[in-house]
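Consider the tokenized backbone below.
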């Protein structure tokens, strides 16, 4: 397994000219970018901007392991507004194009939500309606993703739906596309069940992994704590991933202490797991 890092673990919005050398110095082999309005890459970015980011990473010896669609929350595919859904679909296509230009084959997507406190302002949508809209959105997106050589990988995000690995597996098997997979996040799934159970059930669908820790004594985003300080059994996670046949990227992604110190801790922790 190889170690990658979400670009923002050393500072949100940091220019790539500063973030990439720092991540490489801290031991990252890859980097995961995010496309959103407040990031260096966004919907206003040209093809040349994406290609420039790729060159900057290559110059530092980093592989761009994937990207994340930061418009999944503001333009959810489950929205009651057809205008919002259409805008979200257009944004998704552009981010998929950008991901391909980066030379990456993975895009993290959030399949909308039924209800959430993670993003405000948000809607409250019946679960069955949300699931059907998510299914339609992922199917349409996966068709385009396949045409550009990218896998669109769905992540659990406390969205009021797809709350068990069995439900997530059934959803992806219904989509039935080689361009739609699962983005395992050990911290995100913890409130919904044992990460090891998620890995066993989702095994063949896992395309990427975020390694996050979780402290159940805290509320909301504060529950995401530094790696090794929460309740996630990371050696067991690595064993379960290997047993499931996963040998890809392990991603450092954390909330809070997005500094050189915080990023260094996460990357050192992950390297010790796989060395």
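A designed sequence for it:
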């Amino acid at each position: 397994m190889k170690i990658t890092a979400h670009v923002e673990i050393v500072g949100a919005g940091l220019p790539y000219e500063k973030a990439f050398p720092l991540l490489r110095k801290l031991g990252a082999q890859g980097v995961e970018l995010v496309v959103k309005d407040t990031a260096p890459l966004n919907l206003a970015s040209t093809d040349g901007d994406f290609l420039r980011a790729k060159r900057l990473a290559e110059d530092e010896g980093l592989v761009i392991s994937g990207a994340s669609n930061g418009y999944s929350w503001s333009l959810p595919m489950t929205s009651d507004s057809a205008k919002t859904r259409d805008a979200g679909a257009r944004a998704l296509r552009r981010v998929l194009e950008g991901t391909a230009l980066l030379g990456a084959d993975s895009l993290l997507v959030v399949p909308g939500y039924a209800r959430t406190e993670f993003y405000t302002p948000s809607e409250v949508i019946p679960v069955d309606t949300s699931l059907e809209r998510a299914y339609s959105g992922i199917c349409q997106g996966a068709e385009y993703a396949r045409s550009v050589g990218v896998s669109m990988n769905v992540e659990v995000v406390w969205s009021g739906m797809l709350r068990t690995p069995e439900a997530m597996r059934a959803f992806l098997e219904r989509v039935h596309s080689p361009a739609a997979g699962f983005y395992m996040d050990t911290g995100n799934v913890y409130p919904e069940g044992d990460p090891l159970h998620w890995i066993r059930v989702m095994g063949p669908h896992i395309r990427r992994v975020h390694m996050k820790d979780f402290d159940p004594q805290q509320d909301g985003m504060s529950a995401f704590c530094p790696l090794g300080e929460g309740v996630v059994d990371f050696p067991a996670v690595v064993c379960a991933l290997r047993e499931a046949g996963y040998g890809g990227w392990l991603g450092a992604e954390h909330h809070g202490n997005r500094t050189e110190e915080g990023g260094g801790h996460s990357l050192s922790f992950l390297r010790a797991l796989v060395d």
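The chain has one domain: 2-274.
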